[in-house]
């Protein structure tokens, strides 16, 4: 395990600013964000990113957190003087460890924040990047590298799904699982689908009518879109900002949840690590995922408030997990809930860990 500090060269930053200054912008196809990222907003954000944004200040803030790399796995490891088990905080796409830092600051136990394989400085494993493969790497980090005997896992999106696999693969070591997207069962054969469950499936289908294009491309032609995003920082910004706005609980106002420095920090991390293409790998490899067994460890759910997730019924989670100890739907905070509502998650995660450990 080697200590790690973020250190981006002046040459890389100069090149980024030069590319941003030469950005070309499209004409709007519809009003505002109706056809994707608003070109006027993108132009404004790109100007800020290339001009006012202070990467060196952001770099200093991030380096205040102890970071390490072990066997190709980048992670933050912040220790606290606590007798309770630590917690692993797992992010999703299009995110990074930065999403979990405000939450980590509020917790009174040891915190480990791994960067997903293929994201930033974490390398891809051999073979398909499945949720189980991610979980295996996380468990190796927690037990072999850091020496913890038991730990909690928290996450959403890819990180939440991988944490679900952690719970099923290593129930003796995972003390409890906390997720912001209720887990899905391997199938719905045990009981007839309820009206509430069908309403959720219908809502999901409706969402896919207008929000599945990114996934379709990344699942079938990731290298094609990655070629454009790896060459154009403004294109990279458009691809990511579209999801930050659509998936966060911002009511259409992106900067009500993401200040510009946080946005530019996230974008810069993807750019300087040249990892946007490898961050798509889990989409391409998704068909390699096997059905996940029932989760038997204690589970907490804090349901995110995004797109169709308000329609998610607890019964679906109960099909997937046999021991749900805590369930809430606070109706605030979206796909990036730990960043959007860190105090809410800190309170609920802490209550869960104290009740279980």
UniProtKB/TrEMBL annotation:
Organism ancestry: Bacteria, Bacillati, Actinomycetota, Actinomycetes, Micrococcales
Residue stretches making up the Epoxide hydrolase N-terminal domain: 2-100
Q: Which GO terms describe its molecular function?
A: hydrolase activity
- Residue spans making up a coiled coil are none
User: What Pfam families does this protein map onto?
Assistant: EHN
Ordered alphabetically, the record's keywords are: Aromatic hydrocarbons catabolism, Hydrolase
InterPro entries recorded for this chain?
AB_hydrolase_fold (IPR029058), Epoxide_hydro_N (IPR010497), Epoxide_hydrolase (IPR016292)
Q: Which family does it belong to?
A: Belongs to the peptidase S33 family.
Q: What is this protein called?
A: Epoxide hydrolase
